[in-house]
Amino acid sequence: MEMEQLVALCRRRGFLFQSSEIYGGLQGFWDYGPLGVELKRNVREAWWRDMVAAHNELEPPAGAPSAYEMVGLDCSIIMHPQVWKCSGHYDLFHDFMQTCRQCKKLFRSDHVWEMLKESDWVKSFATTTSPGPQPDRIRVDGGSMLRWAKTKGKKVAPGLALVRNPEVTLSWLVEHIEKNPDEVLSIPTILQFVATEQFAVTGLQTPCPACGGDLTEPREFNLMMETYTSPIRDESTKAFLRPETAQGIFVNFKNVLDSSRVRIPFGIAQIGKSFRNEITPRNFTFRSREFEQMEIEFFCRPETSPEWYRYWRDRRYKWYVDLGLAGDRLRLRDHEADELSHYSCGTADIEYAFPFLPAGEFGELEGVAHRGDFDLRSHAEGKLVRKGDDFVVEADAEGNPKYRGSGKDLNYFDDQTKERFIPHVIEPSAGADRAALAFLCEAYREDEAPDEHGKPVKRVFLKLHPRLAPIKAAVFPLVKKDGMPEIARDIYKSLKPHLNVFYDEKSAVGRRYRRQDEIGTPFCITVDSQTLQDGTVTIRDRDTLEQCRIHKDACLGELQKRLIG
Ligand code: GAP
Predict the structure, then answer these.
(1) Is pLDDT of 201 > 70?
(2) Whose CA is nearest to atom 18 of ligand 1?
(3) How far apart are CA 336 and CA 348, in angstroms?
């Protein structure tokens, strides 16, 4: 499946729209349309139900070290700025970015190379200068480079030194080649032959993926979005939109302990919006500036934490499999030691091979992290930094805590063993938008199905798990006469209080089936001439196209059986 096909379907059928589209859109922000909102709600509800509401706290689930409790929270998006100072986000939550001196666009440094490979001007350059069978290995050909620079290059890469000043850049190239006569250059290497600003220095440099211009040195950039909590906008009223929902859970740890009767081990779950000033939002909703997280902070005794970490890693992986992501497109990957966040002593990512990624590459759906006691200690004592194997409160030049914690006692008292300790935390942190996108990508299928005349035609369908499908069943009268619409409407009315069903009597029934297939509706119920005689209707399965007859009064029971089964 090409990503463009899914993006077009999402727009055409009302799953996703670019935010503020009528004003040209706002990069990194997305609106869910009538079907998208149902899909994402189903993702959230499946998560909440499976992790929290339907969790049986009396018995350990398969693979769990013991029984445990789960409760929920819904915290505010804007929190006290000290939260982010103690959590480490104020100092450490940054990316490196580079700006193009020509077109002024911003790029995340670690994305530049990947974006270059995909950029229009690199592709144009490659096809013009390297018509051979191995476009990644080419011999520099001054003539064709010059022609490209003076024609297509002007349109697609106006910032590239070779385009702005072909003769100077090419002479530098020729000189380089004379010194290295046997060099066969890869396209990425050729791309680096650009001149820096005003051609003061000519040499190797990574060019801008958008226009070929020269990029500034990488600079640090904090990802938290700022806002003010008062009409007076100064440092004292500056606040941040939360970049993760997790911190709301940590700062409420004591409130939850004191107000509910939870005992360790237990988890606190939260679903909510998070915001990050992503420098290069891209790949549809995959990297957005506003997105929704589904996070659990699971509190346990330190000595049991490795077992709980393994339990949550496997449990969360299985959740995606059970909802339809499977096979070689989903994987569980343990982080290398140098990949771990400043607080983490173990993290695994659940990753999916999204179709917009190069073959063999995977994108993160969810991280499952062992956070130790980092967060509770930070919010009690002050921002921590690593010292050897432990963490200590970071000090300023005078030896005082750099950022003071709350000073509150965030220990846990075990009233059975009479021990007091800071629990360790396992955090499964998922993105609702990324999960919805992965389910859509996985569901997209094409096959052949008979049209209204029985002729096989191409069919696009979304093989969504019935729990995720926006509409659970569509009800049709075969034709708009002979009392069929009345019966179909009655069936629709009887189902609607229980399930999200859809009624349609317009156009040929084959077209109606295909419209439902395209949005992933698992079942279609059709009233036909036989219904008038014996009260039975057909129920059609989206995936197998099989139809069977059931009595019209049995529709609800049949659907419930099939949707749960
Ligand atoms: N509390 C830990 C945490 O926030 P993270 O890996 O930064 O960890 C967790 O984020 C999940 O949130 C990711 O696995 C992803 O699904 C989602 N996520 C993060 N940044 C995102 C973005 N810019 N757009 C969409 N989803 C994002």
Answers:
(1) no
(2) 431
(3) 9
Q: Distances from the Cα of 362 to the Cαs of 88, 147, 196, 359, 386, in angstroms? A: 27, 38, 34, 9, 30
106, two tokens: 């911003």
Instruction: Please tell me the pTM assigned to this model.
Output: 0.88
Q: Is the Cβ atom of 430 under 6 angstroms away from ligand 1?
A: yes
459-564: CATH, from 3.40.50.300, 3.40.50.1580, 3.40.50.800, 3.30.1360.30 = 3.40.50.800
Q: Per-residue pLDDT tens for 526-561?
A: 999 999 999 999 999 999 999 999 999 999 999 999
Contacts of residue 457, defined as CB under 8 A and 6 or more positions apart, other chains included, come to: 448, 449, 450, 451
**Any ligand 1 atom below 6 A from CB of 351:** no
State the Cα–Cα distance between residues 117 and 295, nearest whole angstrom: 34
**Listed residue (234, 239, 245) closest to 224, CA to CA:** 239
Q: Topology of domain 3-82+223-376+410-438, per CATH?
A: BirA Bifunctional Protein; domain 2 (3.30.930)
Q: Which residues contact 474 (CB under 8 A, 6 or more apart)?
A: 501, 502, 503, 504, 512, 516, 521, 523, 524, 525
DSSP 53: I
pLDDT value at residue 190:
54
Q: pLDDT (tens digit, 9 = 90+) per residue, 131-184?
A: 444 444 445 567 878 888 899 999 999 988 888 888 877 777 777 767 766 655
- Quick one: which atom of ligand 1 is closest to the CA of 366? 14
CA dihedral 259, 261, 266, 270 (to 10 degrees): -30
